[in-house]
Amino acid sequence: MSDFLSAHHYFLARLFFERSLxxxxxxxxxxAYNQFPALLGEKGLLPTPDYLKVTSFKDSPSLFHWKxxxxxxxxxxxxxxxxxxLMASGLIGQGPISLHMASxxxxxxxxLSIVNxxxxxxxxxxxxxxxxxxxxxxxxxxxxxxxxWIPILILRWMLFRTEMGAGLIKMRxxxxxxxxxxxxxxxxxxxxPNPLSRFFHLRPKIFHRMGVVFSHFCQLxxxxxxxxxxxxxxxxxxxxILHQLILVISGNYSWLNWLTIVLGxxxxxxxxxxxxxxxxxxxxxxxxxxxxxxxxxxxSYRPCLNLFSPRQFMNYCWNRWHLVGAYGAFGSVTKxxxxxxxxxxxxxxxxxxxxxxxxxxxxxxxELNRTPPIVAPYHLRLDWMIWFLPxxxxxxxxxxxxxxxRLYFIRLMLKLLMNDTALLKLFRTVPFKESPxxxxxxxxxxxxxxxxxxxxxxxxxxxxxxxxxxxxxxSLNEFEYLKKV
Length: 485
Hints:
Elements: H1 2-5, H2 11-40, H3 48-53, H4 70-89, H5 97-115, H6 125-137, H7 149-172, H8 175-178, H9 186-189, H10 197-201, H11 205-221, H12 232-250, H13 256-264, H14 283-299, H15 301-308, E1 337-345, E2 356-358, E3 360-361, H16 381-388, E4 393-396, E5 399-402, H17 407-417, H18 421-424, E6 427-429, E7 439-449, H19 452-458, E8 462-474, H20 476-484
């Protein structure tokens, strides 16, 4: 049975997968180290200690139920970065099987502990994807052990769900995917455009329509080949990776595309048999792989039904351990880009328009002449959450109607009035470094890429139109008043 399950021709695929996954975990822990305290720390926008008071370990498994402190969070991130680096370097892959398995499971548990207290700021599908990949990577075995088909098939099944789920949610969702027009809007309205997004947006419409056809082919047809013999599996892997690389060069989606690419390499086998003598897998490790396979099969029941359901879930997991989830992206495409622009004023007179200065985000569009940066696979969590805020606003013509404000946004405005040091580090430009502003407010704009003619005449990447006020001018006095009522 062991020889039957051996996958000698996949030792390079395993090597690439594990080292690359280690790098992605490194980025994830680095992102948490730099941003978690300001967003979710003891004095964050959504403090973790407050969240832990109203949730249980059963509902949200996390080591932080034992204790939370910002310094402990940073220690967890440093440990995670250290193990990730050792995994990426291949050092752990040369050690014992038990060390290899324990290392991956440690990364999984540490990052699970962060995700499960991360609330809104960690509600992204690629968090679950990373956790699922890290958990089942524990059953790959180090580089000197004979590769097994079991974890390879489990992770191919994950890749299949990711791609097929994305394809099906598109066909069931926004009509523009069916009439092939979604890419007319997507590059302009995606969360964090990159330097080439405008270039893609300005291509002829036939280019966009063919792009949608290619996307449907890669997500609805190609994934089936993952379970066919070589060379079909490898050909499928090639198209999936090519599709993801196109997404990489046209936008910023944290590590979503990179993780999908890493999974795609598990579809490739070596052309020639390896000239390496592998050690056989010990019985206990073989049994552990069978247990992992049974677990994956059991947890796949709901994701399977979800793929066939007309009410398909996107980026959803049916267990708090974030294993075997339902994935997908852009079931609907935003047709217009609306942006929240936060401003501050040092003047006592809030009506002095000349005194207002904009806060600049690291990735989100703001300044009209600024070329969108490359930030992926790093995850700018505050930028993403501010991008979501316009969805809470009803836009009718050139008028806007607010449906209320999210708690994290109100606390963000308060902390800007206090020049909170940790929070200000998440901004690219801060107009009030020496002393805090007297007032803060947020404007609601309609953003568009400039045409070629507009760019040559103005030098601007963006043009914008003010539609209204997302948040009126606030000072510390208003917050003091709110505390009393």
